[in-house]
Amino acid sequence: MSNVPSDLKYTKTHEWVRTLPDGTVEVGITDHAQHALGDLVFVEVPEAGRKLSAGEPFAVVESVKAASDVYSPIAGEVTASNAALAAEPEAINSDAYGKGWLMRVRPSAAAGSALLSPEEYGKLIAEEGD
Amino acid sequence: MTRRTPLFDLHQKLGARIVDFGGWDMPLQYGSQIAEHHAVRRGAGVFDVSHMCVADLKGARVRQFLQRLLANDVGKLKEPGKALYSCMLNQTGGVIDDLIVYFLEESAFRAVVNAGTRDSDLAWMRRQAAEFGVDIVERTDFAMLAVQGPQARDKAASLLAPAGARTALALEPFFGREIDGWFVARTGYTGEDGFEIMLPAADAERVWTALNSAGVASCGLGARDTLRLEAGMNLYGSDMDERTNPFESGLAWTVALEPRERAFIGREALEAIRARGPQRKLVGLLLEGRGVLRSHQKILVPDAGEGEITSGTFSPTLERSIALARVPAAAGTRVQVDIRGKLLDARIVRPPFVRHGKALVQ
Predict the structure, then answer these.
(1) Contact A38/B290, CB-based, under 8 Å?
(2) Domains of chain A
(3) Maximum CA pair distance of chain A?
(4) How far apart are the first and last CA of chain B?
(5) pLDDT digits 0-9 by tens, B47-94
(6) Which residues of A make CB contacts under 8 Å with B?
(7) CB B31 within 8 A of CB B11
C-alpha cells in the first residue's frame, strides 16, 4: 500500500504538488511511482528559469528497469531544482515526498481543478492495483 | 497459469515484489535490488532457483548419449561430481539452451536446464535419448537455492552437521556432491564463489529462513540479472536463442570440436560457419556517460554496419551502464548506441566487467 500524504495534491501521471509559503510549488513523483519504477539510478532535472506548460515533460527519472518522463502539473517558471539527486537518485525511492523533490515552480496561473485530492489519487492507484 | 516454487508463500511473507518470469511467479526484489546486489558482492545472498529444471539421466549408454546431445564434451568429466557448462544445439547450430551437467557415476548424470525452456528441452532430450535407452527423470521433488558471495559457502555450510560442513567446504569449483540429503555444487551465476543446493522441496522454507538468520540476504531476479551481467554471463533468450550459434554468442569456448570423431548434434553446421567465418560476435559494452543500455537498442558501428544490445543494465558495482551486444565481426572499440533517439558513445570491452567484487574495466 503506497503512502499518499493528505496535505498534498496529485496528478493522474503520479506527480505530487506541495504549495510552499512563498507561493511557489514543489513537485516530485509519488511513492506509488517510485515503487513501480524500482531503484532509480539517473535523474535529469530542469534548469532554473525554464518556462513550462501544464502537462509538459520537465524531468526524466531512470531506474534499472525503465526510463520515465515526469510531467509538470502546472504552467510556470522553474525557480529551483534538486541538484542533490545527481549523486543520490535513490533519495526518490527512500523519501519521495521529502528529499526526493524534483523542482520548484512559480505558477503563472491558478492550477485549477486539474489536480487530484489525496482521496481521488488514492482511488486512482487502488484501481491500478497498488 | 503461472507456476510457483515451494518458496512462493515465503517470498510473499518477506515482502517480495512478484513478477512473471518465463511462466513462473518469482521474486524480483524484496526491498532494493541494488542493495541485494551489493549484499552478494560484499557478503552473501540467497536466490530461489527452483523454477529451473533438474533432470536425472540414467542408463548404460548415458555418456554416449550426452556426447551426441551436447556441444561441449562430457568425455572431459572423469571425476564423480565434476560439472560441465554446455550449449545444446539444433541441427542448424542454433542454441536450444545452455545448461550444466554433472557426472555422478558411470550410468548416471544430472542436468540443470533453464526454466523458460524446460518443457521443450525435456521433450527434445527424450527424443534424442530413445536410441540410447537413456531414462530421463525430472526431479520435481527438489527445490534449489543459490547461495552466493564471499561469505556464502561458510554460511551455507554452517547449516550442515560438522562432518557434512567439512565435506561441503572441501568441494572444488565446479564439483557437486550429495551431502546429508542435499546435492551441493560449487557453481553459480553471479561471478562470486558460492553453492547451488538442490534439496527436498519440503525443507526449502526452513533452510531459507535459517540462511537469513545466518546473515544471508534474500535476493531476487533483479539482482540476479545485474550480477550475472557484471560477471559477463549470458542469459538464454536474450544473449542467444535458437536462431544464434555459439560462435556469435561469445560461447565458442564451450564448443569442443576435438575429438573430431565426436558427432554431436549441430557439429556440421558449426564447422560450415567456422569455415566461412562468423559474421557477428557478442561483445561487452560500457556506456561512457549517463544513461542505461537496454535490450534491442540499436548500435551504430563505424564502417561496419549495425548491431543490437542483447542484454543491458545499470551496474551497481561500476555505477555505470554495461551491456552485452551482438555486432558485426569487424567492429573495433568505439560504437554509438541509439538511446531514445539520442546517439551515445559506448566502448567495446571484453567481459567480465567485475571479478571478485572488483572492476576490471576503467
Answers:
(1) no
(2) 9-109 (2.40.50.100)
(3) 38
(4) 45
(5) 999 999 999 999 999 999 999 999 999 999 999 999 999 999 999 999
(6) 38-39, 41-42, 62, 64-65, 67, 90, 93
(7) no
